[in-house]
């Protein structure tokens, strides 16, 4: 049986070109395996870490959210109970609304300011790099440090903010205990921290807009403002979408600033308790890990929905424009 | 072949780096639990929160000198609200907890009810002899139904009333502790005196710091608060709770409070020195807090007297426990015993103001005075308060109910919510939270 195969050509096995493959040496087999496997090995570190610290916590959080799990106790399966509790809890809707208003109060001025700053920094001027770098300073400051300083600034009895208000004849505000005043104070901390970061991203976007577009616009008689509106803004649209998405995610997860500004209750009337604070309160102040996990998952889904809405809006506008052009 | 080797090296490196990260996490965890024995000495880890005062009074060092075969590693987390959740995860995983852990009085009911298997029964250890030296209520709170003692008392919080004699003088009120106490026969007298103060008060000074603090002071003199004797949650039907809430809310609505949230509002801390409020309900541990926050600005201005009517109350206090996971239970129990001995508790009181829970230490501190508080006999004031303090019924959800009511009182002060609405909304919150 073995003799013919050793002597006769292996023609019946298949067409000519395939035959050398059967005699492939180990060396080139490994070679081929390598080229197939190498990319996976290179990306493995990321995915191993992602599975361990990203995906697993996500799935485990979902598992916990279907259990009644008290801190220090054992998880006990309760099905959808945590979710019905959450959706019938007034505090949840309050936190949702606060997250929304704080998000609008902090994100909208922040992005507008960043856009203006980036536009100014895009001009030729002295010490331009100094200004660009100094814009990043707040971003490099720790949330804890800056919030504690701002808590002093917005202090009722000896705060800088009230002193400045007194200069223009406005009565002292009890910033942290008011409704709108506390939200404004927290928004200012957020704006202070993130405006420079966004401005730098806009600046990078602006610099990738070809100069000849501006020249062409100038030849057509467009002034600086018209150039900004008709050249800069359209050119920046992908960048703006990116910052809107990132800021929306950040605003939905707002946590450190309100916590350090006023504590886990978010004010006497929970007037600045965000979803993040509400989750923290359930998990670590009340020890209800199951409920906290539920809030975490609902927040996660909310963020996904918000991001999808953002991108869908952008795409819808794109199609709209193309349609208009045709 | 070389390239193949590179690939495998890369793969191995990838796997390793992941593994390294994982192990590095777990080693740091266990590191704090069982520190390696040095020179054959027994290492004991002690993990506490806030300021127990042992390190400050040099007690750990003294113990190491008395027991050369023991080394003590001590760490402390400032906020109890951060300390406790972290400890819970360590207890749940059975690793990472220290040999000796502090337990706040608000948590002891939870420990006794839900975690008896995670802590060591101290009654069978060297520390067991100490049990009989506590006021009955202090040791009973740490004892399970089947007689296990899970914590040894460190300090208690007998109540006094701290006041700024300079502000009282400016408002024409008595500044001598005895004279002031003669004017204060009841909480109603205290509020009435507040009205008198308000009428002549120096600018920017309120009668008391916060409605929440006032509420806690009234409630600290009660036996049954949020739970009754049988362990039933009765906070919403207990007239003592409602009365205390209404009294505090009325004072808030009358503008007798400085509207400063305790421990959260930065202006509360600065108010001790700046004179934002003239009086504050003062558990023994608050004495150290006032000194720390008011500093030189308040030296010689604060004084202290007993609660209205000479009532005894208790607010706060703590225990020491040994987690079941400890590898050095015997040695840890010896240290717990020594730290809770009368002599050591008296030393802690002298340096930090934490009042002894060991009744045998009462005599040792009875004569203590405090120069910062104008030489006030703080030992006598707090000893009397401790002896008059009721046996309080503690429960698992005490902290949740208390924080909801204190938050509601803050809304009366700062947001103009009517007392009735505030009570209503606290009830709704609590119904949603603990059913």
Structure description:
Chain A has 15 helices and 2 strands. By secondary structure, chain A is mainly alpha-helical. In chain A, strands 1-2 form a two-stranded antiparallel sheet. In chain A, a hairpin with a 7-residue loop joins strand 1 (67-68) and strand 2. Chain A starts with a helix and ends with a helix. With 435 residues, chain B is of the alpha/beta class. Chain B has helices at residues 2-33, 59-66, 80-93, 105-114, 136-140, 165-170, 177-183, 187-200, 211-219, 239-253, 266-274, 284-298, 329-339, 342-352, 359-365, 378-388, 398-415, 419-434; strands spanning 42-49, 70-77, 100-104, 152-164, 206-208, 277-283, 302-306, 314-321, 355-356. In chain B, helix 2 links the parallel strand 1 (42-49) and strand 2. The termini of chain B are far apart. At the A-B interface, helix 3 and helix 14 of A face helix 1, helix 3, helix 11, helix 17 and helix 18 of B.
Q: Quick gist of this model?
A:
Chain A has 326 residues and is mostly helical.
- The spatial strand order of the largest sheet of chain A comes to 1-2
CATH topology of the largest domain in chain B: D-Maltodextrin-Binding Protein, domain 2
Overall strand count of chain B: 9
Distance between the termini of chain B: 69 Å
Task: Give me the CATH superfamily of the largest domain in chain B.
Answer: Periplasmic binding protein-like II
Question: What's the SSE pattern of chain B?
Answer: HEHEHEHHEHHHEHHHEHEEHHEHHHH
How are helices and strands ordered from N to C of chain A? HHHEEHHHHHHHHHHHH
Give start-end ranges of low-pLDDT stretches of chain B: 1-35
CATH topology of chain A: MetI-like fold
Helical percentage of chain A: over 70%
**Ends apart, CA distance between termini of chain A:** 74 Å
Could you name the ranges of chain A where pLDDT drops below 50 across 5 or more consecutive residues?
A: 1-18
- The quaternary organization reads as heterodimer
Instruction: Give the strand content of chain B.
Output: 5-15%
Question: Could you tell me the mean pLDDT of chain A?
Answer: 88
**Helix-residue proportion of chain B:** 40-55%
What Rg of chain A is obtained from the alpha carbons, in whole angstroms?
29 Å
Compute the number of helices of chain B: 18
Q: How many domains make up the 3D coordinates of chain A?
A: 1
């Amino acid at each position: 049986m073995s003799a013919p195969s050793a002597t006769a050509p292996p023609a019946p096995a298949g067409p000519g070109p395939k035959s050398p493959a059967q005699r492939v040496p180990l060396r080139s087999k490994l070679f081929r395996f390598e080229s197939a496997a190498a990319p996976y090995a290179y990306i493995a570190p990321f995915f191993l870490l992602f599975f361990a610290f990203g995906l697993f916590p996500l799935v485990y959080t979902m598992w916990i959210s279907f259990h009644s799990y008290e801190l220090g106790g054992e998880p006990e399966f309760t099905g959808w109970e945590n979710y019905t509790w959450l959706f019938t809890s007034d505090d949840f809707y309050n936190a949702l609304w606060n997250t929304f208003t704080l998000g609008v109060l902090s994100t909208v001025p922040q992005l507008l300011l960043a856009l203006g700053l980036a536009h100014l920094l895009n001009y030729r001027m002295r010490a331009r790099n100094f200004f660009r770098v100094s814009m990043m300073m707040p971003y490099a400051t720790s949330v804890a440090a800056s919030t504690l300083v701002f808590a002093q600034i917005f202090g009722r009895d000896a705060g800088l903010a009230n002193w400045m208000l007194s200069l223009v004849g406005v009565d002292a505000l009890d910033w942290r205990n008011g409704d709108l005043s506390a939200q404004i104070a927290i928004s200012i901390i957020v704006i202070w921290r993130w405006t420079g970061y966004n401005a730098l991203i806009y600046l990078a976007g602006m610099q990738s807009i070809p100069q000849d577009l501006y020249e062409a616009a100038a030849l057509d008689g467009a002034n600086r403002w018209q150039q900004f509106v008709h050249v800069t803004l359209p050119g920046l649209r992908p960048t703006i979408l990116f910052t809107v998405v990132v800021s929306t995610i950040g605003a939905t997860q707002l946590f450190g600033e309100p916590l350090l500004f006023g504590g886990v209750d978010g004010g006497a009337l929970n007037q600045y308790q965000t979803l993040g604070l509400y989750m923290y309160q359930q998990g670590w102040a009340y020890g209800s890990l199951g409920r906290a996990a539920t809030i975490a998952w609902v927040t996660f889904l909310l963020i996904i929905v918000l991001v999808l809405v953002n991108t869908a809006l952008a795409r819808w506008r794109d199609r709209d424009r193309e349609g208009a052009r045709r | 072949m070389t390239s193949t080797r590179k690939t495998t090296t890369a793969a191995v490196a990838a796997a390793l780096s992941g593994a390294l990260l994982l192990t590095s996490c777990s080693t740091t965890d266990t590191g704090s639990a069982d520190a390696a024995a040095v020179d054959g000495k027994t290492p004991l880890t002690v993990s506490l929160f806030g300021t127990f005062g042992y390190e400050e009074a040099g007690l750990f060092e003294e113990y190491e000198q008395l027991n050369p075969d023991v080394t003590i590693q001590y760490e402390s987390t400032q906020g109890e609200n951060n300390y406790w959740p972290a400890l819970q995860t360590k207890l749940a995983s059975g690793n990472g907890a220290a040999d000796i852990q502090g337990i706040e009085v608000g948590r002891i009911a939870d420990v006794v009810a839900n975690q008896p298997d995670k802590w060591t029964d101290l009654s069978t250890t060297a520390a067991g002899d100490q049990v009989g030296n506590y006021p009955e209520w202090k040791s009973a709170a740490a004892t399970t139904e089947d007689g296990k003692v899970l914590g040894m008392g460190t300090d208690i919080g007998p109540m006094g009333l701290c006041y700024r004699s300079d502000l009282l003088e400016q408002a024409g009120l008595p500044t001598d502790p005895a004279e002031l106490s003669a004017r204060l026969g009841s909480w109603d007298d205290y509020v009435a005196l507040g009205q008198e103060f308000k009428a002549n008060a120096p600018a920017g000074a309120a009668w008391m710091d916060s409605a929440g603090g006032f509420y806690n002071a009234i409630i600290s003199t009660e036996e049954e608060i949020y739970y009754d004797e049988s362990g039933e949650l009765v906070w919403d039907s207990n007239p003592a709770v409602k009365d205390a809430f209404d009294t505090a809310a009325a004072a808030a609505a009358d503008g007798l409070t400085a509207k400063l949230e305790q421990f959260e509002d930065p202006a509360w801390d600065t108010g001790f020195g700046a004179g934002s409020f003239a009086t504050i309900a003062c558990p023994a541990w608050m004495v150290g807090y006032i000194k720390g926050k008011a500093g030189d600005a308040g030296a010689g201005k604060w004084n202290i007297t007993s609660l209205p009517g000479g009532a005894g109350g208790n607010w706060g206090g703590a225990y020491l426990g040994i987690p079941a996971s400890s590898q050095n239970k015997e040695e840890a129990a010896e240290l717990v015993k020594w730290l809770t001995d009368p002599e050591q508790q008296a030393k802690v009181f002298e340096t930090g103001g934490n009042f002894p829970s060991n009744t045998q230490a009462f005599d040792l501190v009875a004569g203590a005075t405090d120069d910062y508080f104008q030489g006030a006999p703080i030992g006598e004031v707090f000893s009397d308060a401790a002896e008059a303090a009721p046996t309080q019924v503690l429960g698992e959800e005490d902290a949740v109910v208390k924080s909801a009511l204190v938050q509601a009182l803050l809304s009366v002060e700062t947001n103009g919510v009517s007392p009735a609405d505030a009570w209503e909304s606290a009830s709704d919150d609590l119904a949603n939270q603990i059913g």
